[in-house]
Amino acid sequence: MTLKDVAEILEADVIADADDLNITIKNACSADMMSAVLYYHTPDSLLITGLTQPHVIRTAEIAGIKSIVFVLDKKPGDDIIALARQKKIPILCTRFCMYTASGKLYAAGLPGCLFK
Predict the structure, then answer these.
(1) N or C, where is the chain less crowded by C-beta within 10 Å?
(2) Which CATH class is domain 3-107?
(3) Dihedral angle of Cα 33, 37, 39, 44, to the nearest 10 degrees
């Protein structure tokens, strides 16, 4: 699935690095605990979260996460957007809650991250 597909399914606004929506997303993980993301992530995945702090971008970079979706219409601050652009991590924002966003993507064929 491409990032463009994700944006359409989630009716999301693309906030940062909108230049390449053809990035391939292999799976997704949903979490607010970044330690869980570091443990359960799969490279080339999408992170769905309600947190909009800088450590989310840094965690995504370390984990090899391709893009981040912020749920519940949460908009990151300019500092977060700048950091995401610097790290080349696209940010999307959706009005859906984490449960609904995850379910929509799963129903569209995007698998979750594998358990270790």
Answers:
(1) C
(2) alpha beta
(3) 180
User: In terms of Cα–Cα distance, which of 81, 84, 106, 109 is closest to 96?
Assistant: 106
E strands, 39-101, in order = 45-49, 67-70, 91-93
pLDDT (mean) for 104-111: 97
Does the predicted TM-score (pTM) go above 0.85? yes
Instruction: Identify residue 80 by its one-letter amino acid code.
Output: I
Asked if residue 85 lies in contact with residue 16, where contact means CB atoms within 8 angstroms, the answer is yes
| Beta-sheet strand order (sheet of 13-16) | 13-16, 91-93, 67-70, 45-49, 27-30
pLDDT digits (tens, 9 = 90+) for 29-45: 999 999 888 888 788 89
